[in-house]
Every structure is written in structure tokens, then in C-alpha cells.
Fold this sequence. Notes:
Layout: E1 11-13, H1 18-23, E2 24-30, E3 36-40, E4 61-64, E5 72-73, H2 77-84, E6 88-92, E7 97-101, H3 110-122
Parallel strand pairs: 5-7
Antiparallel strand pairs: 1-2, 2-3, 4-6, 6-7
Amino acid sequence: MPRCLRCGEGLTRSRRSISEKLYYSLVFKCRACGLRVGEKHNFLNYFARHTRCPRCGTDELEKRATRDRIDRVLKTPISLVQAMLGGTLYHCVFCRIQFYDLRSRQPKSSSEQKASEALTSEQPQA
């Protein structure tokens, strides 16, 4: 649990105001002194070479052919524009969100490919 920078007490999630929604992805409020602390949006993910999760920034994404009815679809203006332009549907396994992106996934490194090939070759064939 995050701690207050002023008094050291625990912080709890707080609702964001309209102006805070533009700048912060999360806002916490101190229970004791009322200090509000926010986590900034990570806009740098949109300028990366390969696709990343807009929420957590991971590059471990699954490519989807159709939308999943359980996990929600991110409806940011950037994602909607990329969907209209024919972007690929991706799913973040950590955030459980779906979003559209025109960029490709980051290629796996050779060590990751060897590890995945070793796992598939070790499984018994029926």
C-alpha cells in the first residue's frame, strides 16, 4: 500500500476529478492529512516502436481475432482511430484489457524462442 509523502500514513484510492483524468491514471488520498497524490498517464507507450499495453506498458500481449465478451475493450480515442484504420486486436493478460494497435508485437529474443521450443518438445505427444 502506498504511503503519504507528508505524514507517512496509508493512502487509499480516490475518485479523479475531470481535470485529474486528463493528467493522472490513478489518484490516492491520505486518510490522515488529506494529501492527494496521482500517478501520471504513460503516454510514452504510444511512441514505442512495437505495441505495448497502454495501461501497464508490458509487451507480453496476445493477438486476438475476435473480441472477448468478458474482458473490456479500451475505448480511448487513439485505440478507436487505430480500430477504424484496421489495427490488430491485442489482449493484455495482466490488465485484462483489449485494445487496437497498428504496430506489430515485439519479436521474441532467441533465448525466449529456444525456451518455448524446449517446452513444446518436452510435452508428450498423444
